[in-house]
Design goal:
Shape: globular
Helix content: 40-55%
Strand content: 15-25%
Strand order of the largest sheet: 2-1-3-4-5
Distance between the termini: 35 Å
CATH architecture of the largest domain: 3-Layer(aba) Sandwich
CATH topology of the largest domain: Rossmann fold
Largest sheet: 5 strands, parallel
Number of domains: 4
CATH superfamily of the largest domain: Response regulator
Number of strands: 17
Structural class: alpha/beta
Length: about 575
């Protein structure tokens, strides 16, 4: 984050609210903010034309503009400036629509404290700068690809003319091959970016269904918790209490599993090619798309029945993440084809040297032109509403796997889409596994009284961590952010046995806390807590100064295991 003040344009027609926002921003010490106020859209556009604005706090309802027009007008004039909507209307679908259109955040008046406002502006500015930088890099990459392509065309023309001169032709071919290698590398990078965008589009399509799934998870957690709080007499019954807590834990585990599925779909690193069981990947794709074909569909009055018929098939050679994405795109297309009620069948068979997966729906079907476009690797096709069908990505994945695509469809009679993946050449049987011995009983905790410093900005996480650590016999000092944590660590001259810090915190993040602590006491073990712990550990990412990365959510046993890894 830059040390320069952030210039914020407050667009708000209610003077009291505008002054309140100006007061909150002016009182902030880090980051520092400079503010300007516009009471209508015309004033806002005039201020933006002068330049120098880093972020916009935008009220959608203005005296000279309708809510549906305000953001588009501001975004058209200042597409590279972070816009945070602050509205009096709590509308989730409207918020998602604006964020997809380019807004960085959507805040509700009366539900925003000063910490949330400052964090939202700070993070929005940084995200917008990163987005602008990425777009500029993409533009530069596209220019370089076009330039390389033009050079290759010219080179090929020269080769045709100079074919009689063997030596010069060979030198030209060598130069052409070098240029082609560079162009292919650039094209691969562009393809990876396209795949990333398709994944983001798929996640955006799933947003409502995912929200529904999490609401279903939260409902029993909140309900059983309220029950225990309202009827404390039930706590005296150990069996009832244990049963209730078990239900809460089960619901929480379902939520954690849903997060894992989304993270697995969205991750960008490539799996290694290997022998895979295609039906396992199909099951994963069905589970991931369940919010779309069940919860969101039912909410729209659409009933979809998923049917599976898996014949015994050999393994295929491929990359799991790519095949999972391919099957997900096929399911999305089948779901979109069913207007009110229908079924989607997933069938696996073997045909000669290929494993065949067929996705059949009884929906709207395709016209002959659409079917031909879907079968053309250079064209792909789009849905009637303009959304990408993903067939461009499907062709790319099949090409990398040596696969084939077949489509049978007629308008009004549904579609049958089949992908053919080559069978793995060498199928080896895994060695028999030795019986797994029963787990050894946990060793008793040695209550050493060692001192632990915790820096965590979430109050509930602090409370749980204190509960776990004190039960282990540690003396715990709690701080609510990274700056407070380092201040306490400095006052104690580094006299703690362990530092545990969250990563995403205002003022000073966990990476900075770890480095600052190591400068004071190089021998202090540092554990970094983060909701992205699983992804960081799988990629081998460990920030400087951090000894161990632990993912959220964590359990008492996983925390104890982490403590053991750093010598406790």
């Amino acid at each position: 984050m830059t040390s320069q003040p952030i210039k914020v344009l407050i667009v708000e027609d209610t003077s009291e609210h505008a002054r309140l926002l100006e007061h909150i921003l002016s009182a902030a010490t880090y980051p520092r903010f400079h503010t300007a106020i516009a009471s209508n859209l015309a004033e806002a556009l005039a201020a933006l034309s002068l330049g120098g604005i880093d972020a916009i706090l935008l009220d959608l309802t203005l005296p000279d503009s309708l809510p549906g027009h305000t953001f588009s007008a501001v975004n058209a004039v200042a597409p590279d400036i972070a816009v945070v909507i602050i509205s009096g209307v709590s509308d989730v679908s409207r918020a998602i629509e604006l964020v997809q259109a380019g807004a960085q955040d959507y805040l509700i008046k009366g539900q925003v404290d000063h910490n949330l406002l400052l964090r939202s502006l700070q993070y929005s500015v940084e995200r917008k700068r990163a987005q602008v930088a990425l777009r500029q890099a993409n533009d530069q990459l596209e220019t370089r690809v076009h330039e390389r392509t033009a050079e290759l065309v010219n080179t090929n023309k020269r080769l045709q003319i100079e074919i009689a001169e063997r030596k010069r032709a060979q030198e030209a071919v060598a130069a052409s091959n070098e240029q082609l290698t560079q162009a292919l590398a650039a094209l691969r990078a562009a393809q990876q970016e396209l795949v990333h965008r398709e994944r983001l589009t798929a996640l955006g399509t799933m947003a409502n269904g995912i929200a529904h799934e999490f609401n279903n998870v939260l409902t029993p957690i909140i309900g059983w918790t309220e029950h225990l709080l309202r009827k404390p007499e039930d706590l005296a019954n150990n069996e009832t209490t244990r049963d209730t807590i078990q239900k809460i834990q089960t619901a929480a585990n379902v939520g954690a599993a849903a997060v894992g599925r989304v993270r697995e779909f969205a991750r960008t690193e490539a799996d290694a090619y290997g022998q895979l069981v295609l039906t396992d990947i199909v099951e994963q794709a069905i589970a991931f798309t369940e919010p779309k074909w069940q919860h969101e569909a039912q909410a729209s009055g659409v009933m979809i029945d998923i049917r599976k018929r898996f014949e015994p098939i050999p393994e295929v050679h491929g990359e799991a993440s790519q095949l999972r994405e391919l099957i997900t795109l096929l399911l999305f297309n089948a779901i979109a084809a069913i207007p009110r009620r229908g079924s989607i069948s997933l069938i696996t068979t073997q045909r000669e040297d290929f494993v065949v997966l067929t996705v059949r729906d009884d929906g709207l079907g395709m016209s002959k032109l659409t079917r031909e476009r879907c079968l053309d690797p250079n064209l792909g096709a789009r849905h009637p509403d303009g959304r990408s069908s993903g067939f461009g990505i499907i062709h790319g994945i099949l090409q990398r796997h040596g696969g084939k695509l077949e489509i049978e469809s007629e308008e009004g009679r549904g579609s049958k889409v089949s992908i053919l993946i080559p069978i793995a050449l060498a199928v080896t049987q895994p060695p028999a596994l030795a019986p797994v011995p029963p787990p050894a009983p946990e060793a008793p905790i040695v209550r050493t009284g060692k001192r632990i410093l915790l820096a965590e900005d979430d109050a509930m996480v602090r409370e749980v961590m204190e509960l776990y650590l004190t039960e282990y016999g540690f003396s715990v000092t709690l701080t609510s952010n990274g700056r407070e944590g380092i201040d306490e660590f400095t006052r104690a001259h580094g006299g703690y046995d362990l530092l545990i810090t969250d990563r995403a915190m205002p003022e000073m993040n966990g990476d900075q806390v770890a480095l600052a602590a190591k400068q004071i006491n190089p021998d202090i073990p540092v554990i970094l807590l983060t909701g992205f712990g699983g992804a960081m550990n799988s990629e081998g990412e460990k920030p400087p100064g951090v000894d161990l990365v632990v993912g959220k959510p964590f359990t008492m046993s996983s925390l104890r295991e982490a403590l053991g890894k750093v010598g406790f």
